[in-house]
Write a structure and sequence with these properties.
Layout lengths: L2 E6 L4 E6 L6 E6 L8 E9 L9 E9 L11 E4 L11 H7 L3 H4 L2 E4 L24 H5 L1 H15 L12 H15 L4 E6 L1 H12 L4 E7 L8 H22 L1 H6 L3 H10 L3 E6 L6 E6 L1 H9 L5 H4 L2 H9 L4 H9 L8 H11 L19 H10 L21 E6 L7 H11 L3 E6 L10 H12 L3 H6 L22 H5 L2
Parallel strand pairs: 6-7, 6-8, 8-9, 9-12, 12-13
Antiparallel strand pairs: 1-2, 2-3, 3-4, 4-5, 5-7, 10-11
Helix pairs in contact: 5-6, 7-15, 9-12, 10-13, 12-13
Length: 493
């Protein structure tokens, strides 16, 4: 469906016109962080409670990066953010660079899902870039964390948009389709990562005729029961770190007793440890618990380049030096900007719902049920929405779907993608990158394959696109600290 741009003289506004019965979107020129050229920003009024269309309203914010071509393709690319709790608009900078080829012919659309970014945000005081500089006792102590989340929940409930039961994925996807209609697009190409894959699956379930192609990277299916799945999936990724070190001659010579070191370290907890804060450099004394230590090793598992530092960090911690491990744990948190209230509103309503089907999982040997128990305590008092029974069912895909999984992913490994691809049927392809972590789309060659998949002229051509370019990607070798000596260190230099 064709579209045309017309500037309103002197008003700084643009009308996104299309042959559609839906109201045209009124967009204003804007600047987005990390985006070099001008964007267009819009807003829609949506009922907080869909059952009460004339009741309390929220403002849904979104941004469009217009295609460069004069004769652009009629189907834009919509990006679905992860978390749950990430702002899609705040990801426009890095995503527009990674998918610059899309921007030649297709508009790129970023919608702040309700509860995130500027769309009725459910943010807690701790959310944002300042969090990593907090004292370590506050960052890693689960009891303090739970108290802060409880206080945040009470504060959020006082907001005009504070009915925390109205932020489920099902309700949010109706918002996304309202943006599609306002932009006059008959169909969209949907790309989602992590929790964004659940959002794409739900959008596809509710609006099958509006999806032209879909890409889901690091699949978190609706019946995943996220906190429970953590244990099994974290353990598998962590065990792979030990296995890789044992198979690598240099790593094994440097850390011949790594598994035993780790078990002795776990057995020594809880205890008081002294450590320098990785950002402030201030010395701190922290009572280190088993759950805190497991949380510290869990973060680096998301990225193989960071996981490569775990053998040296565990070795150092076994000797009483926890700075390397704490530094690795803090590295991913530095750029996070999550809406914690939205995160728990989704997980408590969907993953911990009594209506969620039981999916067999096994507890990890080391990780046990600690993280699931923490979510259970938070969700015990969190108001919960009620997803429809159909939300948990994945049927045949109405359009070609590319399913991507990283073999070293600690939270959405291939076992989830394989099951979803089978349920989606013959129009779904599952591609596994054995040594990739959480987020296969970070790999340039995979992104190129995704562009070819979306740009393919017809569905048959899309299904033939070869996306296995990263199948032989090697695992990063174990990190050797600067100044390390010995034969293992020499071999890796």
């Amino acid at each position: 469906m064709g579209t045309a741009w017309s500037w309103l003289a002197g008003a700084g506004l643009v009308l996104y016109c299309a042959a559609s019965s839906a109201p045209a979107a009124t967009l204003k020129a804007c600047r987005l962080k990390g985006v070099e050229h001008e964007a267009l920003c819009g807003a829609l009024q949506r009922p907080l409670d869909p059952a009460q269309p004339n009741g309390a309203q929220i403002t849904l914010h979104y941004a469009v990066l217009p295609a460069l071509a004069r004769r652009k393709a009629p189907d834009p690319v919509f990006f679905f953010a992860g978390g749950p709790g990430q702002s899609a608009v705040q990801l426009a900078g890095p995503l527009s660079k990674r998918f610059a080829r899309f921007g030649n012919r297709r508009d790129l659309v970023f919608v702040d899902q309700r509860g995130t970014g500027d769309s009725a945000p459910l943010k807690c005081p701790d959310d944002g870039e300042r969090q990593p500089s907090r004292p370590l006792a506050e960052l890693f102590d689960e009891t303090r964390l739970e108290r802060r989340v409880a206080a945040c929940r009470s504060a959020l409930q006082q907001l005009p948009h504070g009915d925390l039961t109205k932020y489920t994925t099902t309700i949010a996807m109706a918002d996304i389709d309202a943006v599609r209609q306002a932009l006059g697009a008959a169909r969209i190409n949907a790309i989602g990562g992590s929790y964004g894959t659940r959002a794409v699956l739900e959008y596809m379930r509710q609006f099958p005729q509006q999806v032209r192609r879909a890409v889901i990277d690091g699949v978190a299916p609706p019946d995943m029961r996220l906190p429970t799945a953590f244990s099994q999936d974290n353990q598998a990724a962590f065990d792979a770190v030990f296995d890789a070190c044992a198979k690598d001659a240099a790593c094994h010579r440097r850390h011949p007793d790594l598994r035993a070191q780790w078990q002795r370290l776990l057995a020594s907890l809880p205890r008081e440890v002294s450590v320098q804060h990785p950002l402030t450099g201030q010395p701190e004394t922290v009572r280190l618990s088993r759950t805190m230590l497991l949380g510290a090793v869990r973060g680096p598992l998301y990225a193989p380049t960071l996981a490569a530092g775990l053998p040296a960090a565990i070795d150092a911690a076994a000797g009483g030096r926890f700075e390397p491990l704490i530094g690795l744990a803090s590295s991913l948190a530095a750029g996070e900007n999550m809406a914690t209230g939205m995160h728990f509103s989704v997980v408590c309503s969907e993953d911990l719902s009594a209506a969620a089907p039981a999916v067999a999982v096994s507890e990890g040997r080391d990780f046990g049920g600690a993280f699931a128990a923490m979510y259970g305590r938070v969700c015990a008092d969190w108001p919960r929405g009620t997803p429809p029974a159909e939300f948990y069912r994945i049927g045949p895909a109405p359009a070609p779907v590319l399913v991507l999984s990283g073999g070293a992913d600690p939270v959405t490994p291939p076992r989830h993608g394989a099951r979803v691809a089978q349920l989606l049927g013959p129009t779904a392809r599952h591609v596994v990158v054995p040594e990739a972590g959480h987020g296969v789309l970070q790999l340039a060659c995979v992104r190129d394959a995704v562009v070819r998949f979306v740009d393919a002229a017809n569905d048959d051509e899309a299904m033939k696109v070869d996306a296995g370019c990263a199948a032989t990607l090697p695992r990063p070798p174990a990190f050797v600290p600067v100044g390390a000596s010995g034969p293992a260190a020499q071999e890796t230099r």
